[in-house]
Design a protein that fits this description.
16% helix; 2 helices
């Protein structure tokens, strides 16, 4: 049997999983980013709303001003796991959707809390 081949990447790599939620309706994504936590949360388009920790990991919850989403970034060296939840301002069906950044951030934290026990040692 041949030995397994593994090649380390030197350039940042991102892997993303996107899903849709119903009741309330919103889109969300989980992205494994090949960038360090401080670099990710230092993005000028992010306005931090809260800094907390989950399962011993630093978490930054921020309004992404370059769009309509809340992003919860989790420090998992050597990269960052980011949960993004979209919202829709001025929705024609406000009772069915997330309508503002606070609602989106609450959902992002629900996802982060659910992922907490399953976070890897390294990203």
């Amino acid at each position: 049997m041949a030995a397994a081949y593994r090649q380390e990447r030197t350039d940042p790599v991102s892997l993303e999983c996107t899903f849709a939620h119903s009741n309330p309706r919103y889109g969300a994504s989980v992205v494994a980013m090949g960038q360090e936590f401080d670099e990710v949360v230092g993005d000028q388009r992010l306005v931090e709303k809260e800094r907390t920790s989950i399962a011993g990991r630093d978490v930054s919850v921020a309004d992404f001003t370059g769009g309509v989403s809340c992003r919860a970034s989790i420090d998992i060296p050597p990269g960052t796991l980011q949960v993004s939840v979209d919202y829709r301002e001025n929705s024609p069906r406000p009772e069915d959707e997330l309508n503002n950044v606070d609602e989106a951030c609450a959902e992002a934290m629900n996802i982060v809390n659910a992922l907490g026990p399953y976070l890897p040692e390294r990203l």
